[in-house]
């Protein structure tokens, strides 16, 4: 964006601004995680991105728990296997619901409230499974498949990255 283009809704600037901010967050989150900082603020033109740790160690925990990093356990169909590029593991038949954006994951609509889903819950495609807070907005996250919840992969109050698995389902 140039200096003369304000970030106001309309004429596609809202979508462009959101895309630029999410891309910046994806690039800056690892920097914050690897640093000893509690807060990181970067300004480029009219774009201002501020990242802060929601609580001590939450960013490191979220980055360290990403599925590509954890090795798969022995045996076919074992829960906790590393996720392939597609949403379903070919040999186990399990499906992973992924985060559509980067932000802070919340399993319940408010502190102290019952979580949207729990292990063993039967859910439908399109059902709300959690919230992601990004840019001070709470976004409802919906399942893209129906099935039984076998594992909740995102820890409440931690940073999740776009395309990171948050829920594991058995579609059978």
Q: Strand content of the residues, in percent?
A: 25-35%
CATH topology of the largest domain: OB fold (Dihydrolipoamide Acetyltransferase, E2P)
Helices and strands, in order, run as: HEEHEEEEEEEE
Biggest sheet, strands in spatial order? 3-10-8-5
Briefly note the structural class of the backbone: alpha+beta
The CATH class of the largest domain: Mainly Beta
* Main beta-sheet annotation: 4 strands, antiparallel
Average of the residue pLDDT scores? 74
Number of strands: 10
The rounded Rg comes to 18 Å
Can you give the helix content as a percent range?
A: 10-25%
Structural features, described:
The chain is α+β, with helices and mostly antiparallel strands and 172 residues long. The protein has 2 domains: 40 residues, no CATH class; 82 residues, OB fold (Dihydrolipoamide Acetyltransferase, E2P) (Beta Barrel). The protein is 17% helix and 28% strand. Strands 3-10-8-5 form a 4-stranded antiparallel sheet, with no helix packed on it. It has a 4-stranded antiparallel sheet with strand order 7-6-4-9. A two-stranded antiparallel ribbon has the order 1-2. β1 and β2 form a beta hairpin. The protein starts with 12 loop residues before the first helix and ends with a strand. The N terminus is likely disordered.
């Amino acid at each position: 964006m140039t200096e003369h283009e304000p970030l106001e809704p309309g004429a596609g600037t809202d979508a462009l601004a959101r895309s630029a901010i999410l891309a910046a967050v994806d690039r800056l989150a690892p920097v914050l995680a690897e640093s000893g900082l509690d807060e990181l603020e970067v300004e480029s033109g009219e774009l201002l991105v501020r990242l802060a740790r929601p609580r001590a160690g939450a960013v490191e925990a979220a980055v360290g728990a990403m599925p590509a990093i954890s090795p798969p356990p022995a045996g076919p169909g074992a829960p906790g296997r590393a996720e392939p590029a597609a949403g379903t593991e070919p040999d186990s038949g399990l499906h992973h619901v992924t985060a559509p954006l980067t932000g802070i994951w919340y399993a319940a609509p408010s502190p102290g409230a019952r979580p949207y889903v729990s292990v063993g819950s039967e859910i439908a495609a399109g059902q709300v499974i959690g919230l992601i807070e990004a840019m001070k907005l709470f976004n409802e996250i919906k399942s893209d498949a129906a099935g039984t919840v076998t594992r909740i992969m995102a820890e409440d109050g931690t940073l999740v990255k776009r395309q990171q698995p948050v829920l594991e389902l058995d579609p059978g």
